[in-house]
Write a structure and sequence with these properties.
Layout (H helix, E strand, L loop, with lengths): L3 H11 L2 E6 L2 E13 L2 E11 L14 E5 L3 E7 L18 E5 L3
Antiparallel strand pairs: 1-2, 1-5, 2-3, 2-6, 3-4
Length: 105
């Protein structure tokens, strides 16, 4: 079984995209930060494609940020691709108190 946390963390270091299933929906995202909040492993990602319960805004939309519970993310792969983000990319991640890794700008 792949170590999802390690895949997402390395994608942040390499500034790669991740793809995978989250809550039964296929997601394509750029992970910006990973760490924990109250012991729960989370990542702050910018979702640019795939399916979302809330729907996706246009590219660069502030509404495309997702707090992802790492333990609920499956079929994860890292890949090369265009980096997607929003103008507020430096904001504090609401789902992370302890940051293990974050994208370097």
């Amino acid at each position: 079984m792949p170590d999802v946390y390690a895949i997402v963390r390395q994608a942040i270091v390499d500034k790669h995209q991740i793809v995978g299933m989250y809550h039964g929906r296929w997601r394509e995202m750029c992970p910006h930060a990973i760490g924990t909040k109250k012991g729960v492993r989370n990542a702050l990602c910018y979702q640019f494609a795939g399916d979302s319960e809330k729907g996706l805004g246009p590219p660069g939309s502030l509404n495309n940020w997702r707090c992802i519970h790492i333990d609920e993310l499956t079929e994860v792969e890292s890949r090369l691709g265009e980096w997607h983000t929003a103008p507020n990319h430096s904001r504090k991640a609401p789902c992370i108190d302890f940051i293990d890794a974050e994208v370097d700008y």
